[in-house]
Amino acid sequence: MLRPTLVGLLVALAGEPTIAAEPAAAAARTSTAAPAPLPASEPEPASEPAPKPAPRPSSSPAARLHAKGVRCMDEIERPACAIESFEALLDEDTAERELVTDALLRLLVLYRRAGREDDVAPLLRRFWDAGGGRRSTGHVPYSTRFLPSELDVMINIDPPRLVASALVERGGPELHDYLFTCDEVRRNDVEIAQRWRRAAEEAATQGRPTWEVYYEKWDAEQERDRKRAARQAERERKGQTRDLPPLLFELACPLGAALELPDNAAWRRMTSVAHHRERDRTAAIFQLDGLADKLAAATAAGRLVADGPGRWALPDFAYGEHDVRLVSLDEGELLAAPVALLPAIEQARSKRKRRMNAELERLVAAVPRDTAMFVVLNQAALRELGLGDMERRSLRAVIEAVLPRPKGLQVAAIAGDSLALLTRVPTDTAVRGRMLVTLANAIMARSSDDAESAKWLADLDVAESSDRKALLASYLLTAKRLEEILWD
């Protein structure tokens, strides 16, 4: 299966929070056995990947400003020059959104380095204002419009955009495979090698043996896993069973194998739309170039089985207790859903009737199109996931009265030299929205006294939107920080 490695960097929709992603050897993590044996000799440290070359200048003013900014930032290391160029680019009236997004991401980094935290909030507003003015759903599959209105959570992943980012390119084949491979052995090998490399670097600075540092981290991780398992056992004792992962993550790898894809980076787009609680009400949509030919070849070879006109089954695959079928409702798109959900979807397609949850669709339309990933929840889903499990109903009522009523949640990721997670929570009133921003900043200031909390909060910014009716937040992951999350 495809583990939610990518989406783990975006948001934990439910259940136990994890550090970005579960490792490949999940079974080993939950036991007290020794880790997989390491090489007899320490592996050679990976060579530093060459910096991604700056785009070649063109006749476009935006492209020239972008190229100048990249040169100032990456080559001659003149931050003032870089900031001036990227700010000028954001002021350009250009349709080259890729350049605008990269400039915005680089300015987030530059402002932080220069101690200009007050300039971050306007950048967040620019990002979401760009989405709000567009009102287009061209960044999600066409088939989503035919899905039942009770589905209220969407996850959208754009693998080609992630693969093309400087962050993934500089991570080399190891990071690429860790994020996209379906080979659990390969993912485990990458993780062990990278953790050993990190331990070797730390050991060299401390004058200690590499194995000592490596197993010290291993023991600490085992302790965290024991505590996590204890919390899960307590939830199960109370009858709080853990939900199935979204169908998208369970199906991506076996379906990719049936279509003979090398890994999950081959998908043009991967989209999950589901009910926030009832996992049997879920659909996954995969976009792929040359899909028709691949479907024909997989059917001829028996890797897929025809199940009526325009329907296929994946042999030996079931989603929990539910049989799943595949249908193609638009060119280059393959939709998967439990059998019970498909008739209504196919009927909507035949009548060209839009059935998608209107509130969810509006929130999705407000996410800028040039995102690598996004997660969107409508108001009902956010309310249930955020406050639904509170045991004291009186406390829940007080919290709901004091806090602004959220109209949903949008979390978008943009990738370049760094990865920025940009969050927007629309609220009902400007007054209470501002109060929440003030409260969040006060909590962050107080938590900064704790070393571990401060480490996480250092890259977090909170602001309010231009109309003061939304809470905005950004979390910046540099390549160095991503390495710490994945490998430490």
Report on the architecture of this protein.
- 47% of the residues lie in helices and 15% in strands.
- It has 488 residues and is α+β, with helices and mostly antiparallel strands.
- Among the domains are: 95 residues, no CATH class; 126 residues, no CATH class.
- Strands 1, 2, 3, 4, 5, 6, 7, 8, 9, 10, 11, 12 and 13 form a 13-stranded antiparallel beta sheet that branches.
- A hairpin with a 5-residue loop joins strand 12 and strand 13.
- The chain is globular, with a radius of gyration of 23 Å.
- The relative contact order is 0.14.
State the helicity in percent bands: 40-55%
Mind telling me the C-alpha Rg? 23 Å
Strand content: 15-25%
Span of the ends, CA to CA: 24 Å
- Give start-end ranges of low-pLDDT stretches: 9-57, 390-396
Q: What number is the mean pLDDT?
A: 78
Q: What would the principal axes of the Cα set say about the shape?
A: globular
Q: Could you describe the largest sheet, including whether it forms a barrel? A: 13 strands, antiparallel
**Which class best fits the helix and strand makeup?**
alpha+beta
Count every beta strand, where a strand is a DSSP E run of 2 or more residues: 13
Query: Number of helical runs?
Result: 20
